[in-house]
Design goal:
The chain has 13 helices and 12 strands. With 400 residues, it is α/β, with parallel strands linked by helices.
C-alpha cells in the first residue's frame, strides 16, 4: 500500500512550471533556449515599492501579522476596489493570502463538499481544475473555442450549470488566451447567473491592468450589482506591479466566506510575509502612472508576436485584448514531421520538438484544456521575442 495520499492521484504538477524547469535545465547544459513559458512580467518591481519594503524591515515590521492581512493593506484594498471597480467593501470582507493561488485555493477548500461542481471555462489557467479536485469538488469544463475568440457564450454557461453547481470561476483577461470580456459580453453571462441563485462567482482579475487598445476591464459584481452577495472578487499585485515573487493576492466577498477562508489559512500558512504586505500597501496606494507605460510596452510586444506568428502557414493567431499571452492554433501543422523525424501528432509533441530542435520553450495547449494550441508569454524583451518568433517560423517552415 502506498504511503502517499490517494488525493495526489487526482492532480498533476503544473505544466507551466515544468516547462520553465526544463528550459532552465537545457540552458544549464549550454543550450541557447529562449523561454516563452513563464507567466510573469520581465519588469523590475517599481522603486517606490521596493523602498517601502526596505523601510518596513528597518522599522522592524518583521513579526507575525493578523492571519489574513494587516489593517493598512486591507484598507488599501478597499480603497482600490472603490476607486477602480466601483465596489464597496469593508475590511472584514477582505482576505490577503500568499499569492492569488492561495486565495482561490482557500475559497474552494472552505466551500466545496464531495459532489459539488465548479464550472471552469476552457482554455483555463492550469491550476483551476486541480485545485477543485484537491478541495473534493468536480470540475465541469465548458470549452470556449477559437471561433468565439475563446470566450464562453451564455448558452454554454447555461448548459454547464446543474443543481450541483457551486461556483463559476471567471478569468478576464484570460490566462492563457488574453481574451477579455466586454461589459456587454459579461452582462450576458451575469444574466444567466441571475437565473441560478445557487451559483457563486469566483473572479480571477489578476490581469486587470493589462488591457490593450479600446478594451475596458470590468468585473462581474461591478456589471451586475445583484451578484455582490455571492461573488468573491479576487486580485493581486503580482502581474500589474511586477511583484510575482512577493506573493501577495487578495479577495473581497461576503463576511461568512472571508471568515471561513481565514480559518483555512490559520491552519496552513498563517499570515503572508509581513514585508511583502507593506510593499503591497505602497503598490496600491502609491503612484500608478507606470502602469500605462508598461501597457504600452506590452501592446508593442503583443503586436510583434501576433504579426510574426500570423505569417506562418498552418498557424492561426488571434489578437488578445489583455494579459501578456497569445494562444495560437496549430491545427494546420498536425500530422507533419520535423527534420529530426518527430511527428507533430498533437500540441504537446509540437512544444516538445520546438524546445528540443529550435530551442524555444512554450506551453502546449492541452495543459490549458484546449488543443491543438500553444501559449506564448510575451513578457520578455523585444529582442528575445523577435528571435524566438524567427525560430518558430523557421521550425514550422522545416516541417514536412
Amino acid at each position: 500500500m502506498s504511503f502517499l495520499s490517494a488525493t495526489l492521484s487526482r492532480v498533476k504538477p503544473s505544466p507551466t512550471i515544468a516547462v520553465t524547469t526544463k528550459a532552465g535545465e537545457l540552458r544549464a547544459a549550454g543550450r541557447d533556449v529562449i523561454g516563452l513559458g513563464a507567466g510573469e512580467p520581465d519588469f523590475d518591481t517599481p522603486e517606490n515599492i521596493k523602498a517601502a519594503a526596505v523601510q518596513a524591515i528597518a522599522d522592524g515590521k518583521t513579526k507575525y501579522t493578523a492571519v489574513d492581512g494587516i489593517p493598512e493593506l486591507k484598507a488599501a484594498i478597499c480603497a482600490k476596489f472603490a476607486r477602480e471597480n466601483g465596489l464597496t467593501y469593508a475590511p472584514n470582507q477582505v482576505s490577503v493570502g500568499t499569492g492569488g493561488k492561495q486565495i482561490l485555493y482557500n475559497a474552494l477548500m472552505a466551500t466545496l463538499n464531495p459532489g459539488d461542481e465548479v464550472v471552469i471555462p476552457a482554455p483555463y489557467w492550469v491550476s483551476y481544475p486541480d485545485m477543485v479536485l484537491l478541495a473534493g469538488g468536480t470540475p465541469v469544463v465548458a470549452t470556449a473555442t477559437l471561433d468565439n475568440s475563446f470566450k464562453l457564450t451564455p448558452a454554454q454557461l447555461e448548459a454547464a450549470i446543474t443543481p450541483k453547481t457551486k461556483w463559476l470561476i471567471f478569468n478576464s483577461p484570460s490566462n492563457p488566451t488574453g481574451a477579455g470580456y466586454s461589459r456587454a459580453e459579461l452582462k450576458a453571462l451575469t444574466d444567466v447567473l441571475m437565473r441560478h441563485p445557487h451559483v457563486w462567482v469566483m473572479t480571477d482579475d489578476m490581469y486587470e491592468h493589462l488591457a490593450y487598445d479600446d478594451f475596458e476591464f470590468c468585473t462581474p459584481a461591478e456589471v451586475e450589482p445583484a451578484l455582490y452577495d455571492r461573488t468573491l472578487t479576487c486580485n493581486g499585485v503580482s502581474k500589474a506591479y511586477a511583484m510575482t515573487g512577493w506573493r501577495i493576492g487578495y479577495a473581497a466577498g461576503p463576511v461568512e466566506l472571508i471568515n471561513a477562508m481565514r480559518k483555512i489559512q490559520s491552519q496552513s500558512t498563517s499570515n503572508p510575509c509581513s514585508v511583502s504586505q507593506w510593499a503591497a500597501v505602497e503598490a496600491l496606494n502609491g503612484p500608478q502612472e507606470f502602469l500605462a507605460a508598461n501597457t504600452e510596452t506590452f501592446t508593442r510586444r503583443r503586436n510583434l508576436v501576433v504579426s510574426m506568428l500570423s505569417q506562418i502557414d498552418g498557424i492561426t493567431c488571434p489578437v488578445p485584448e489583455g494579459a501578456f499571452y497569445v494562444y495560437p492554433s496549430i491545427a494546420g501543422l498536425i500530422g507533419k514531421t520535423t527534420p529530426a523525424g518527430t511527428v507533430i501528432s498533437d500540441d504537446e509533441a509540437f512544444a516538445t520538438a520546438l524546445l528540443e530542435e529550435a530551442e524555444v520553450a512554450v506551453v502546449f495547449g492541452a495543459a490549458f484544456g484546449l488543443s491543438p494550441n500553444f501559449r506564448v508569454s510575451y513578457a520578455t524583451s523585444d529582442e528575445a521575442l523577435k528571435t524566438a518568433c524567427e525560430r518558430i517560423q523557421e521550425f514550422c517552415a522545416s516541417l514536412g
